[in-house]
Design goal:
alpha/beta, Rossmann fold, 9 helices, 10 strands, binds adenosine-5'-triphosphate, ABC_AA/LPS_Transport, ABC_transporter-like_CS, ATP binding, ABC transporter ATP-binding protein, nucleotide-binding
């Protein structure tokens, strides 16, 4: 079966530095793949190349066999490649519900007009509330976004990504900067998305122990190159990975 997402020789140079270097990767639909690798390995740059924020120096990205070379990041989102929002894309003075409602609206490409589209407006609100339930933010629905804790902001980012309803979710370190108490809730949110079974998920995570039992497969980036790609067990048992990465860095 055609992989849903594939890269061929994907590479980008910043000056003389190859941040992503000839990466060939593919994944089937509804698969959960994690990307690990030490600081500066090229993980976020790899995401930026897939989502279209950066243009490759060489190589290409394919969605269901079709080249994305000429597609902007907005077009890629429309085609089904969703990248988690950074909190900077969230309207800080709007409530959590209002933010998610706007993301639902943007997916539906409708203009807000409460009188002419009252029914549609109710549908959008219902969908936004359902998403907030999924990301465990129902009790914060009416709170202004900039008053959320760090962990809650990350849940909101995931909620806004879900609102766009893309087939593929690119999640860049959703637990970054979180306090230890906040981590289980975000992992629960991710697990529940996986268990619904309708998304293809690519997740960058630093902390190996967090993703072992979530992932169908794990790929390891090192100095911009793809060092290994396999089941969690294969990656744990891989000697090159152990030497390059697991020898201390993964649990730092
Ligand atoms: N826009 C840019 N201009 C120049 N160099 C860049 C740019 N973006 C990334 N780099 C460099 O590319 C390399 C890969 O960075 P990247 O952020 O992708 O790594 P990472 O694996 O995501 O690291 P981390 O785990 O720390 O987030 C680094 O050496 C970084 O300094």
């Amino acid at each position: 079966m055609e992989p849903i997402l594939k890269t061929t020789n994907l590479s980008i140079k910043f000056g003389e530095h190859k941040a992503v270097d000839g990466v060939n990767f593919e994944m089937p639909a509804k698969h959960f793949k994690s990307i690990i690798g030490p600081n500066g390995a090229g993980k976020t740059t790899f995401f930026n190349l897939i989502s279209g924020e950066l243009e490759p120096t060489e190589g290409d990205v394919f969605l269901k066999g079709a080249s994305l070379k000429k597609k902007s990041s907005v077009e890629r989102t429309r085609l089904g490649v969703g990248r988690s929002f950074q909190i900077t894309n969230v309207f800080p003075n709007l409530t959590v519900l209002e933010n998610v409602r706007l993301a639902v609206q943007s997916k539906r490409k409708v203009r807000f007009d409460m009188f002419r589209h009252f029914l549609q407006y109710k549908n959008i609100t219902a969908e936004a509330e359902q998403i907030l339930q999924q990301v465990l933010l129902t009790d914060k629905m009416h709170q202004v976004a900039n008053q959320l804790s760090h962990g809650e902001k990350r849940k909101l980012e995931i909620g806004m990504l879900l609102a766009l309803d893309t087939e593929i979710l690119l999640l860049d370190e959703p637990t970054a900067g979180m306090s230890l108490e906040e981590v289980p809730a975000i992992l629960e949110v991710i697990r529940s998305i996986k268990e619904r079974g309708d998304k293809t998920i690519l997740l960058i995570e630093h902390k190996m122990d967090m993703i072992i039992d979530l992932s169908d497969s794990i790929m390891v980036l090192f100095n911009g190159t793809l060092l290994a790609d396999g089941t969690p067990k294969e990656i744990m048992d891989n000697e090159t990975v152990q030497q390059a990465y697991l020898g201390g860095l993964a649990y730092e």
